[in-house]
Amino acid sequence: MSTHQLNAQNLLCPMPVIKTQDKIATLASGDILEVSCTDPGVLSDIPAWCRINGHKLLHSEQSDRIIKLTIEVIHENDR
After folding, report:
1. d(CA 28, CA 65)
2. CA-to-CA distance for 54 and 74, rounded, in angstroms?
3. Cα 68 vs. chain centroid, distance in angstroms?
4. Global pTM value
5. Once rounded to an integer, what is the mean pLDDT over residues 28-44?
6. Is 13 a catalytic residue?
7. Which domains does the chain have, with CATH numbers?
8. Given CA atoms 1, 72, 35, 76 in this order, what sign does their dihedral have?
9. What are the Cα distances from residue 61, in Å, to 5, 24, 34, 78?
10. Do 9 and 38 form a contact (C-beta atoms < 8 A)?
11. Are 31 and 4 in contact (CB under 8 A)?
12. Which candidate in 3, 7, 12, 13 is catalytic?
């Protein structure tokens, strides 16, 4: 298991979700992805995307205008 970072700041919907999806496709199950965004829509969009695709949202927080989401990658064959 390893931790990876994704900077999706200053991107507008749907780009933070698309960038998250693309990055997760390159990671192994059990890896952690920390996504940093500024679009407040990610607070609902990325958790919904995680539920649909079987990944686990571990944490989300907002500080000033920066939103950070922590996702555990769980690929279909590992569920």
Report:
1. 30
2. 6
3. 9
4. 0.95
5. 97
6. yes
7. 3-78 (3.30.110.40)
8. positive
9. 15, 20, 11, 27
10. yes
11. yes
12. 13
To which residue do tokens 């990055």 refer? 23
How confident is the model over 43-70, as pLDDT tens digits? 999 999 999 999 999 999 999 999 999 9
User: Confidence band (pLDDT; 50, 70, 90) for 79?
Assistant: confident
Q: Which two tokens stand for residue 64?
A: 């000033």
Whether pLDDT at 7 is above 80: yes
Give mean pLDDT, residues 12-18. Answer: 96
Query: How far is residue 22 CA from its own chain's centroid?
Result: 10
Count the Cβ atoms, other than its own, within 10 Å of residue 33. Answer: 20
DSSP code, position 73: -
